[in-house]
Amino acid sequence: MTDSTEKPSRSTRHYWRAGFLRGGIELRHLLRNPKEMSGHLTNVVVALLITAYVSDDVPGTQTPMAHLVLAGFAAYLLFQIGLINLPQMLVTEREEGALLRLRATPGGIPAYLIAKCLLVVVTAVGTLSLLLVATALLADGPLPHGSGDWLTLLWVTTLGLLAVVPLGAAIGAVLPNPREALALIMLPTMGLLVTSGAVFPITSLPVPVQQVASVFPLKWMAQGLRSALLPDTARAAEAAGSWELPMVAVVLAAWAVLGFLLAIPLLRRSARRESGSRLTARHRKAEQSGAMSA
């Protein structure tokens, strides 16, 4: 009886330990890769340029429109890293044979997912911190004003990442190949950026558009970050006239549960479908199309 209960516990600890070790290795590779690091730094530069060109105040408030846009852009960065960058990484590594190797590793899929979550979370939090500090120092950007706002920033960021990272892993498990991955996920995410009130007040959008946007996590991530970064008077620009923080928590938690329910089964299914012959056939096709050097 004791052995049967201890084995799952030891297995779980093994998954987490292996996942954190792998995640640490991938983080070191990221920090040593100037090309990948420059991509994240570019986002901060874009945010600074936005503050230079956006003027006026949010309608009905004395809050600078640039602050509202920056709060929404911060939410989009978290959304982008989870739902664009992560699926691309997973598809690319699948094409390189990573999932095939995981089939021969006990607990390989859970450890792999933990490592990717660690990599994405650290990258997202680091980029968000750099964005907020840089815009505050160089462009008078918004920062939380008290302990309550800092706490809101923490839990909205945490729940937001939990909502999009497993979902990004699930999407990456079903995308066909790296060449098509970006095209398939970029258009929907850009559509959500425009319709979720991240770049301008959501009240300026038609009500049906607002209702559709409220189903997806980006709208609530942006609203939660605005509540942490903007003064209370900015609530006048929200559809409900309030920050609706309980609803922010409910929607993001629901997406987090859905993502976790989808991610591991889809990754396992993708790994089971991998074989040496399929991998070789994909490489041969890529070489023939000129997408890969022979």
Question: Can you walk me through this structure?
Answer:
The protein has 294 residues and is mainly α. The chain contains eleven helices and no strands. Helix 2 packs parallel to helix 5, helix 3 packs antiparallel against helix 5 and helix 9 crosses helix 10. The longest helix is centred in the middle third of the chain and has 32 residues, at 108-139. The protein is globular, with a radius of gyration of 21 Å.
Termini distance? 56 Å
Oligomeric state as shown? single chain
Largest sheet: none
Strand content: under 5%
Low-confidence stretches: none
Number of strands: 0
Principal-axis shape equals globular
- The helix fraction, in percent, is over 70%
Which helices and strands appear, and what pairs or packs with what?
Elements: H1 2-31, H2 34-53, H3 65-95, H4 98-102, H5 108-139, H6 147-174, H7 178-195, H8 207-213, H9 217-229, H10 245-273, H11 276-289
Helix pairs in contact: 1-5, 2-3, 2-5, 3-5, 3-6, 3-7, 3-9, 5-6, 6-9, 6-10, 9-10
